[in-house]
């Protein structure tokens, strides 16, 4: 679960060659810590697999919503990925990070006129049509157009992040997509059936549904590959996912089509950890220990949104056995629980606690609940740590007051 570029020596965790205790001391907590080498190696895993398995044109596109941070985007631009943006803000960040506008994909089920204008002015290469209103506004030439199709498949994930089922708020039903493709010129189809998907099966069914819509030049099959959050999480490896997607595409759509894959989570999740300081420790009701840290639902909303499971450890006693604990945040809601059922070795106030696998949708969904400034993002590599996003200040909290 921890970044590949991390290690434990004498029970102490290092990320990118940087001692986690020192990181906490130097940059404060909570802090998002990212092993930069993991971002790069994960990007290469996807691009190399696609290049090896698919001889036709194609590209891997980072779904920027997973970690919309300029430094992260810059790494992926350097690694030759394209970028999926789903708002004017994400488009702004992607352009700022140096992406070639031609490699950008604009998504969204509620695009504003201003966002479309911004995309057209910037020269965004591909716009994904979600609905008839998009089609009316875009059919006059300019970017390459894809239609987002709702393939009508179910998948095994939390209902809030399931998007390919009939009736989904995203995209168009196959019949409507077919009718639209007869009316306006489109290059191809897009699908994104959901997130944190642990099986290739729903993808295969979805690709088969796309094949029924007609023959096109480009197929963007979306993202959604699951990552392991806790020990024993059974997921498909990125190479196997690309293999399965390419095989489904070749079987159903032909092997010379242009193939686009759009992972978000799987490119960033395991590269990132969050460091916290333990502030208080008290006995829980069922014999467990309640460990309260200096962050919570303001820096990681996923446990609150989806009951998402995480693990935790004390960075200076990684190898020690421990007792059952619940890690809670500092926010004024009882649901602000970061990690349930985790064993921690005698946690004490002042300990630095780490939760791995926070690289995806943590920073992205961070907020200022309880007036808590959002954490910094620290890149670690080769024993060097650098701040790529500074911690918010109290002044930032009223910086927009007029
Ligand atoms: C259109 C689209 N593509 C790709 C993704 C990335 O999904 P994931 O982070 O699960 O790979 C999303 C996520 O919501 C999406 O909406």
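^ Assign residues to that structure.
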């Amino acid at each position: 679960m921890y970044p590949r570029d991390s290690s434990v020596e004498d029970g102490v965790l290092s990320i990118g060659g940087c001692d986690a205790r020192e990181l906490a001391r130097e940059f404060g907590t909570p802090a998002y810590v990212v092993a930069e080498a993991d971002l790069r190696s994960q990007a290469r895993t996807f691009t190399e697999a696609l290049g090896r398995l698919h001889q036709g044109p194609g590209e891997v596109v980072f779904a920027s919503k997973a970690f919309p941070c300029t430094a992260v985007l810059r790494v992926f631009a350097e690694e030759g990925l394209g970028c999926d943006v789903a708002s004017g803000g994400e488009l702004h960040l992607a352009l700022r990070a140096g992406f070639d506008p031609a490699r950008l994909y604009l998504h969204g089920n509620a695009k504003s006129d201003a966002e479309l204008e911004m995309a057209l002015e910037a020269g965004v290469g591909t716009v994904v049509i979600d609905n008839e209103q998009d089609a009316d506004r875009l059919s006059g030439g300019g970017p390459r157009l894809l239609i987002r199709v709702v393939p009508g498949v179910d998948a095994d994930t939390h209902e809030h992040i399931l998007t390919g089922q009939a009736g989904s708020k995203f995209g168009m039903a196959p019949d409507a997509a077919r009718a639209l493709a007869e009316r306006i010129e489109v290059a191809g189809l897009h699908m994104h059936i959901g997130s944190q998907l642990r099986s290739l099966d729903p993808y295969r069914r979805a690709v088969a549904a796309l094949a029924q819509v007609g023959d096109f030049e480009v197929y963007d099959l979306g993202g959604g590959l699951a990552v392991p959050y806790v020990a024993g999480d059974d997921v498909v490896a990125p190479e196997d996912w690309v293999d399965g997607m390419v095989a489904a595409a070749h079987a159903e759509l032909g092997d010379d089509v242009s193939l686009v894959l759009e992972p978000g989570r799987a490119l960033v999740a395991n590269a990132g950890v969050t460091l916290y300081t333990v502030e208080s420790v008290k006995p829980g009701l069922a014999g467990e220990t309640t460990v309260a840290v200096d962050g919570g639902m303001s820096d990681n909303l996923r446990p609150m949104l989806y009951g998402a499971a995480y693990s935790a450890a004390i960075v200076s006693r990684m190898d020690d056995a421990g007792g059952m604990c619940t890690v809670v945040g500092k926010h004024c809601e009882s649901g602000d629980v970061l990690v349930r059922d985790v064993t921690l070795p005698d946690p004490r106030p002042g300990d630095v606690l780490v939760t791995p696998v926070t690289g995806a949708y943590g920073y992205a969904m961070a907020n200022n609940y309880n007036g808590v400034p959002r954490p910094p993002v620290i890149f670690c590599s080769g024993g060097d740590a650098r701040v790529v996003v500074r911690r918010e200040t109290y002044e930032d909290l009223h910086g927009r007051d007029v």
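The mean pLDDT is 96.
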